[in-house]
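URGENT: need a sanity check before tomorrow's submission.

F., can you look over the Putative ABC transporter ATP-binding protein record below? I want to be sure the sequence and structure line up before it goes out.
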Amino acid sequence: MTARAAVRGLVKRYGERVALAGLSFTLEPGQRVVLLGPNGAGKSTLFQVLTGLFAADEGDVEVAGHSLRRAPARALAEIGVVFQQMSLDLDLSVRRNLRFHAALHGLPSRLADARIAEDCAARGLGADLERPVRELSGGNRRKVELVRALLHRPALLLMDEPTVGLDPKSRRELLTAIDADVRTRGSTVLWATHLVEEADGADRVLVLHRGRLLADGPPPAVSSALGGGSLEDAFLAATA
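C-alpha cells as predicted:
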C-alpha cells in the first residue's frame, strides 16, 4: 500500500530548544491516526510545518507523492485542515464561506455547489446554508469547517485539537463524521489531541513527547509499549 503521507526526519528548533527531534512516520489511506501528546509535546509545531506555516530546519514531508520542500504548492493542495481556532467569517452565510474556499482551490462553480449541497446535507447542515455562521452552535460551526476542509477532496486531512470548546455531544458527532469519511472515502486523517479518550476507535496512535515519537501502533499495542494498563494510564506515566 502506498503511503498517503510521509514525514521524514523533521527537525525544528527555536533557538536552543528543539521542538521536533528527527520525527518520522507514514500515514496510510483509510486510517484515522491520533497524534497524542501533552501540551508542549510538539503537536502544534508539527502541524505548522505540515501546513507550510513554518519551514523545518531538516527533513521533509511528502503528501500524495509531492515534496513539501521541493513542490510546496502541489503538496499543500492535497491537504485539508480544521484548525484549533475557528476560522470562518461569522458574517457570511455557510454557503458563501464554502464557495469562497472552493474558489481558492479552483473548483468549478457547478462542482463546488454540488459538493456543498451534498456534504452539508450529510452532516445535518442542509437547512443552514443561507444562515450567517454566527447564528450556528459551536458544534455546527465545526461541521462547516469540516465540510470546507474536504471540499477539494484532499489526500490528507489534518485536525488540530478540533474539539476544543465543544460539548461532549458535539465532540462525539465530530468524531463520528470523521470516522464515516474514513470508511466511505478511504481518507487519511491525522487528529492531534491531548485527550486520551479521543483515541478510542482510532486505527493508530502516535504518542509524541518533547518532539520525539514514543510509540506508534493500534491503541492496545501503544498501551503495552508504554508499560501496560489502560491507554490513559500508560500515556500519563510515559509523559510525566
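My own read: The chain has a mean pLDDT of 94. The longest helix spans residues 168-185. If you see anything odd, call me.
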